[in-house]
Amino acid sequence: MSEIINVTKIYLPDLEEYVSYLEKIWKSKVLTNNGTLLLELEQKLREFLSVNQLYYCSNGTIVLQILLKMIERESEVITTPFSYVATTNAILWENHTPVFVDIDPKTYCINADLIEAAITPRTRAIMATHVYGNACDVVAIEQIAKKHNLTVIYDAAHAFGVTVHGKSLLSFGDYATCSFHATKVFHTVEGGLIVANDPTKNEELHLLRAFGHRGDDYYFVGVNGKNSEFHAAMGLCNLPKVPALIAQRKDVCDLYTELLNWDKLQRPQLVEGLQWNYAYYPVVFETEEKLKEVFKVLGDKNIVPRRYFYPSLNRLPFLAKYGIEATCPVSESIAPRVMCLPLHAAFEPKNVREIASLINQTL
Ligand SMILES: Cc1ncc(COP(=O)(O)O)c(C=O)c1O
Predict the structure, then answer these.
(1) How does pLDDT run across 20-67, given as a tens digit for each residue?
(2) Which residue's CA is the closest to the ligand 1 atom numbered 7?
(3) Cα–Cα distance, 161 to 159 (Å, whole number)
(4) Which ligand 1 atom sits nearest the alpha carbon of residue 190?
(5) In CATH, what number does 15-238 get?
(6) What per-residue confidence (pLDDT) applies to 1?
(7) Residues with Cβ within 6 A of ligand 1?
C-alpha cells in the first residue's frame, strides 16, 4: 500500500532543540503559570507580529470564549456561517445567540455589506473569521462597529503571519485570536493567542485567563486558559522557522495554481494588499457530486483531502434546539462543494502533480 497523503503533515522541530528547552524546564522546575519560556514566547510573538499586547493561552477555542465572556450576557453576536464549528460553538457556549450573516462570494469571509441589516438592539459584537487566512473587510467592519458601538473580534485562527499592506492582520479589530493547534502554520502542539488592540482591557484579560483572581483578591469569574512551559518550548522552537515554512508552502500552492484546470474550479480571491501565509489550499467544484467523485478518486490512491468548511454553520443540526434558523445562500452553496487539498511545507512536487492530474482527469 502506498503511503497515505493527508490534508496536512505536522511540523516537528529537531528533537535536540526541543530537548535543550526541556533541560531549562528541568532546571527551573517551573512547568506552568507564566514561566520564563512562556514569557519569552509572548515577547517573541509581540516582535514577530508587531503588536503591543497579547496573551498566549491554551487553545484557539478558549480564547474566543474568554473574549465573548467580556460581552454583556445573552447578547446577539453577528458571525460568519463559513468557518470551523468552534466559532459558532464558542458563541453558544457563552450563552449568546449567533446571528449568521452570509459571506462574500469572492473572499468567502463575512459580507460586510449585509452586516448592518442584521443589527438589533441586542447586538453587542461582530465575530468574523479571516477564513483560510484571507482578510475580512476590516475597514468596513470597523466603521459599522464604531457607528453601532459593537466589539469586533476576529477569529484569526488561520491568519498567523498574514499581513495587509504590510500590517499584521491580527492588529485589526478590538481583538484577534489565533489557534496554535498542531495542524497550523505555526503551532505549539495545542495553543491559542489573544491579540488585544484595546489597551483598556489588559488587566481584565489577564485575570480572565487565570481564574479571575490575583493572589487573595478575587474580581470576577475567570477560567483556566493558561498554557504550559512545554507548549511554549515548542513555540520557541517553531517560531523562527515560520518564514521559511511559509515560503515552502507558497511553492506548493503556486504549483497547484499552475496545474489545476480553472475552467472547472474556483477558489477564494485574496484581498488586495494581502501577504498570505498559504495556510490552506481550498478548491470549489461545480457540484457536490463532482467533489464526492474526486474524493473517491483521491481516496483510492490513499490521498485524503478534507471537507473544510462543511456544513455551512447556519445549517448545524443542533441549532434548532436554540430556535436559530438562518439562510445564507452563498455559504450554503460553497460549503458542500469546497475541498482543502493536501498541503504542508515539505510536500513534494511529484505529489502535487499527481493530485492535480487526478483532479483534472475526473473533471
Ligand atoms: C476558524 C477556527 N476557529 C477556531 C479554531 C479552534 O482552534 P483550537 O483547535 O486551537 O481550539 C479553529 C481550529 O482549527 C479554527 O479553524
Answers:
(1) 999 999 999 999 999 999 999 999 999 999 999 999 999 999 999 999
(2) 60
(3) 6
(4) 10
(5) 3.40.640.10
(6) 52
(7) 59-61, 83-84, 86-87, 129, 155, 157-158, 179, 181, 192
What stretch(es) of the chain map to CATH 3.40.640.10? 15-238
Name the segment(s) of the chain with CATH classification 3.90.1150.10: 240-362
pLDDT in tens, 301-346: 999 999 999 999 999 999 999 999 999 999 999 999 999 999 999 9
State which ligand 1 atom lies nearest to the alpha carbon of 191: 10
Q: Which amino acid is at 249?
A: R
Instruction: Give the separation between CA 187 and CA 237, rounded to whole angstroms.
Output: 10
Interval between CA 185 and ligand 1 midpoint (Å):
12
Per this entry, what is the length of the chain? 363
Residue 179 alpha carbon to ligand 1 centre in Å: 5
Look up the CATH number of domain 240-362.
3.90.1150.10
| Ligand 1 atom at minimum distance from 62 CA | 11
pLDDT band at 293 (very low <50, low <70, confident <90, very high): very high
Tens of pLDDT, residue by residue over 103-122, are: 999 999 999 999 999 999 99
pLDDT at 197 over 70: yes
Q: Is the pLDDT of residue 4 over 90?
A: no
Residue 64: all three cell numbers together: 474566543
